[in-house]
Amino acid sequence: MARLLAVHPVVEVGEMSRSIEWYREVIGFEIGFDDGGDPPGYVGLQRDGVEIHLQSHPEPGWAEGGRCIYRFMVDDPDALLAEFRARSSAFADRDVADTAWGTREFGRYDPDGNALFFYRDR
Model's pTM, two decimal places? Predict the structure, then answer.
């Protein structure tokens, strides 16, 4: 039987250069590949064995649709939030919380309105 091996969500962004900088500086991703454009239109970012892709949508009106929610399972959300705060003020107003659905998590929106949550099961 065939198996699923990984998933690489594609995060739609309006301004690729700004988004690459945000994901690198704030979240700690590194560029794994890009499509060679200047700026690139499609980029693969990697961190800790996790890979996400950014796809540029600079055309007017693209952001009027619904945005996505990306949930990253992590081993220690408290330590990760402390790392993010040390990197940038983007998470200064965030706290880790225990949820009614049994997770410990925190989150925020990226510059394009995509929701990013970092969690572990309690």
Answer: 0.89
Per-residue pLDDT reduced to its tens digit, 57-100:
877 666 665 678 999 999 999 999 999 999 999 999 999 999 99
Sheet holding 50-56, edge to edge: 10-13, 50-56, 42-47, 30-34
Q: Delineate the domains of the chain, giving CATH numbers in brackets.
A: 10-60+67-121 (3.10.180.10)
| Buried residues in 65-90 as b, exposed as e (16+ CB within 10 A) | eeeeeeebebeebeebbeebeeeeeb
What distance lies between CA 19 and its chain's CA centroid?
10
